[in-house]
Amino acid sequence: MSTCRYLYWSIDGPRARIVRSLLDGSNQTVIVSSGISSPAALSLDVSTGDVYWTDVSVDSIQVCCLMADSEADLNLLT
């Protein structure tokens, strides 16, 4: 999967999530919607296909593998 054709962003609040879409805003897909509460500071590792973010509510850095078929590959880095 090419990560270069997508736009990634986080949404904070009661329904916190990380989302991606095509560059024109179409085809929005929720990447992560569980196990997060205040996602911020997204960073994409294009060589591995991982997306990293901070979650300020739990003082952590989290990662999700974009090559996975589900949200199950969410990891907490402390």
Characterize this entry briefly.
With 78 residues, the protein is mainly β.
Description of the molecule:
This protein has a single domain, classed as Thrombin, subunit H (Beta Barrel), CATH 2.40.10. Strand 2 and strand 3 form a beta hairpin. The chain is built from no helices and 7 strands. By secondary structure, the chain is mostly beta strands. The strands form 2 sheets. Strands 4-5-6-7 form a 4-stranded antiparallel beta sheet, with no helix packed on it. Strands 1-2-3 form a 3-stranded antiparallel beta sheet, with no helix packed on it.
Keywords:
78 residues, mainly beta, Thrombin, subunit H, 4-stranded antiparallel β-sheet, 3-stranded antiparallel β-sheet, 7 strands
Topology:
Blueprint: E1 6-11, E2 17-22, E3 29-32, E4 39-45, E5 50-55, E6 60-65, E7 74-77
Antiparallel strand pairs: 1-2, 2-3, 4-5, 5-6, 6-7
Which class best fits the helix and strand makeup? mainly beta
Q: Roughly what percent helix?
A: under 10%
Briefly note the CATH topology name: Thrombin, subunit H
Quaternary class: single chain
Bulk shape: globular
Question: Which CATH class is shown?
Answer: Mainly Beta
Strand % is over 45%
Strand arrangement across the biggest beta sheet: 4-5-6-7
CATH architecture: Beta Barrel
Distance between the termini: 28 Å
Largest sheet: 4 strands, antiparallel
Low-confidence stretches: none
Order of helices and strands: EEEEEEE
Number of helices: 0
Q: What do the pLDDT scores average to?
A: 83
Report the count of strand segments: 7
Radius of gyration equals 12 Å
Number of domains: 1
